[in-house]
Design brief:
The complex is a heterodimer of chains A (225) and B (420). Chain A has 225 residues and is an alpha/beta fold. Helix content of chain A is 43%, strand content 24%. In chain A, helix 1 links the parallel strand 1 and strand 2. Chain A is globular, with a radius of gyration of 18 Å. Chain B folds into three domains: 136 residues, no CATH class; 87 residues; 135 residues, Histidine kinase-like ATPase, C-terminal domain (Heat Shock Protein 90). Classes of the chains: A alpha/beta (225), B alpha+beta (420).
Chain lengths: 225, 420
């Protein structure tokens, strides 16, 4: 997967690049409007991460340019500005999704995957990880062809972990994925533990292998050891 | 006391006292001159008596007309003294007692001393005084009343720009964009006042705008560094060499970062609610929204073993979904956060009032400060902005927000606009 990261904050750009590279993606970086303009004109990407406030231009202009070229690159806006109208403008200009800073890399990764999946495999809504099969359309999870029932939050969490497989996901990231802005509620971190325990149990009962691993109480990793 | 009332009171008191003093002096002077006139008459009568005795060598017969009485009395020695005085006498004709003025003098002829008493009724004179007084006092009083009336009208008219200014100042809203309503007045003082207020309001408005902009910008600027911290933490977490201590540190850093993020978002939210930017209005089923939120928070409720007592009637409200969502969210998290283990949350939606009641280890809270920004008790894990945001939303949407403590229940009550 080829991703273009348009972000002027270099350390953030580097972190994103590291994280995505480790997933086996190729990342191009553009810290300025000029360099981004050239890159999107010359190449085609699976997904473009677009920061709206660039030192030498408006990110929305880049989006307009991209759409004028009739490219099918998925576009994800990342911005510190969350003025409602700006969001809507970005989406109406053809961005696929937006993420407001600060965000967790695992969240970013999961969203990129969702964008790419939507544009690349139109109609194919199946995610398969070993014996686990997830149908995004019907929100159904099958383990060894047997349906396992999950609550909505459990389903979201499972999907989130599979999207970030082999990565450690902090409890904070998981909590904000489920509860959004309310993730700071006194003990919301503890619920992640409860949820994961439930998911684990349901998967094991269905004859699934053990994939969830706790990492020193900070987070969890979904991986085959 | 109103300025006008005060002014009138002073005016009336001064006028009243002045009128009494002038009336008194006037009456005194008039009486003095009338007495003098009467005394002259009496002296004349005495002189006539003297002439009569000198010519005829006898005393004239005692007279007793309606208003003139002359009496003579033999005395041993005439001391030659004469004086005027007031008295009361019986008017035989009118058969009433009347006030009178008399002159008493001693005369002597044929070696005999007589005391002469000439008395004249004062009734007519007094009538005269009364009439004169009335003729003068009545028009003066009438003039006073007319003056007061004119004063009233004039003051009302003169001060009307002031009252308009006051109305405008009261209606002044620092958030509203329209400029301050100017009041046109020919009076220089009011014009100056108007200009001063207009200047002040525009200054207040621009300062306020600047502060909001500053808060917004500061919060936004902090988001990028926060994103960097977050991403670096995420990167560190992927390291395979994490020990228990490092992990714990990382966990704490995550918590602090998410708290800082939340704080920043809350500040931004406050500014945003304050900005009168138009939001999409739609018809929302409040009951559905509360039930949705209940599902959203169910783990938290379950974990603290809270009992939920729901009494929801369908209610539709036209408002911004975003704001109502935050409102219900804050009411819920507040009721959960400050509850005690195994406590109760009572949610009722009746007519146009949504009330959240919860048990707590705390007693009655201080209504005056709970809605203030960053007010929170030491044990609270929150940002201290939740209730401030709640208040801000209610202010913006003209909802009534109330807090009360009854039967060990803390209740936050939101009364939605009655006419929506």
């Amino acid at each position: 997967m080829k991703v273009l990261i348009i972000e002027d904050e270099l350390s953030l750009q580097k972190s994103i690049q590291q994280y995505l590279n480790a997933e086996g993606n190729t990342c191009d970086c553009a810290p300025t409007y000029e360099s981004a303009y050239q890159k999107i004109s010359m190449n085609t990407y699976d997904c473009v991460l677009l920061d709206l406030t660039l030192p030498d231009g408006d990110g929305l202009e880049l989006l307009r340019h991209l759409k004028k070229l009739n490219k099918t690159d998925g576009v994800m806006i990342i911005t510190a500005r969350d003025a409602v109208d700006q969001r809507i403008e970005g989406l109406s200009l053809g961005a696929d999704d937006y993420l407001i800073k600060p965000f967790h890399l695992s969240e970013l990764n999961a969203r990129i995957l969702a964008i790419v999946r939507r544009s690349n495999f139109a109609g194919n809504n199946l995610i398969v990880f070993n014996e686990i099969e997830i149908d995004l359309q019907t929100k159904e999870v099958k383990v060894n062809d047997k349906v396992v029932y999950f609550t909505r939050k459990e389903f979201d969490l499972l999907l989130y972990f599979i999207a970030n497989k082999k990565k450690v996901i902090s409890k904070a990231a998981a909590a904000s994925h489920i509860w959004g802005d309310d993730a700071d509620m006194a003990d919301s971190f503890d619920f992640i533990y409860t949820h994961i325990k439930n998911i684990k149990k349901k998967l094991l009962d269905a004859g699934c292998k053990e994939y969830f691993h706790s990492v020193y109480g900070v987070g969890y990793k979904f991986a085959e050891l | 006391m109103k300025l006008f009332t005060r002014y009138n009171r002073i005016l009336l008191i001064t006028n009243f006292i002045g009128l009494i003093i002038i009336g008194f002096l006037f009456y005194q002077t008039l009486t003095y001159y009338l007495n003098k006139q009467m005394d002259d008459g009496l002296t004349e009568e005495l002189m006539e008596v003297n002439d009569f005795t000198n010519v005829k060598n006898i005393l004239p017969a005692p007279t007793s007309f309606d208003d003139l009485v002359a009496e003579y009395k033999k005395i041993k020695v005439a001391n030659g003294r004469s004086f005027f005085a007031d008295t009361v006498y019986y008017n035989p004709k009118k058969r009433i007692m009347e006030t009178a003025r008399y002159l008493q003098a001693d005369i002597s002829f044929n070696h005999q001393a007589y005391r002469v008493l000439i008395m004249s009724s004062k009734v007519e004179r007094q009538e005269e005084i009364r009439t004169i007084c009335l003729i003068i006092i009545l028009p003066v009083s009438l003039l006073l009343v007319i003056l007061l009336g004119i004063n009233r009208v004039m003051i009302n008219r003169l001060w009307s720009p002031f009252r308009q200014l006051l109305i405008n100042i009261k209606a002044f809203n620092v958030n509203r964009e329209e400029p301050f309503d100017e009041v046109i007045s020919p009076t220089i003082e009011f014009r100056e006042l108007n200009d001063a207020i207009a200047n002040l309001s525009s200054k207040v408005r621009s300062d306020y705008k600047e502060i909001k902009l500053f808060t917004e910008n500061a919060s936004h600027e902090m988001m990028t560094p926060l994103a960097v911290i977050n991403s670096k933490l995420d990167t560190m977490l992927q390291s395979n060499h994490l020990g228990a201590t490092e992990s714990e540190t990382l966990g704490d850093l995550y918590k602090a970062t998410s708290k800082l993020t939340k704080l920043n978002q809350s500040l931004l939210l406050l500014v945003k609610i304050d900005n009168n930017s138009q939001l999409d209005i739609e018809e929302i089923n409040v009951k559905d929204m509360v039930e949705e939120k209940l599902a959203f928070f169910q783990e938290l409720i379950y974990k603290r073993k809270l009992i939920i007592d729901l009494d929801l009637n369908p209610f539709y409200l036209s408002t911004s979904r975003q704001l109502l969502d935050i409102l219900v969210n804050n009411l819920f998290s507040n009721a959960i956060r400050h509850n005690k283990e195994g406590g109760l949350i009572k949610i009722s939606l009746a007519k146009n009032t949504l009330a959240f009641s919860n048990t707590s280890d705390y007693l009655k809270l201080d209504e005056d400060v709970i809605f203030e920004r960053f007010h929170k008790d030491a044990s609270s894990e929150g940002t201290g902005l939740g209730l401030a945001i709640l208040k801000q939303i209610c202010n913006r949407e003209h909802f009534q927000l109330q807090y009360h403590y009854r039967y060990h229940l803390h209740t936050f009550e939101v009364e939605f606009n009655p006419n929506t």
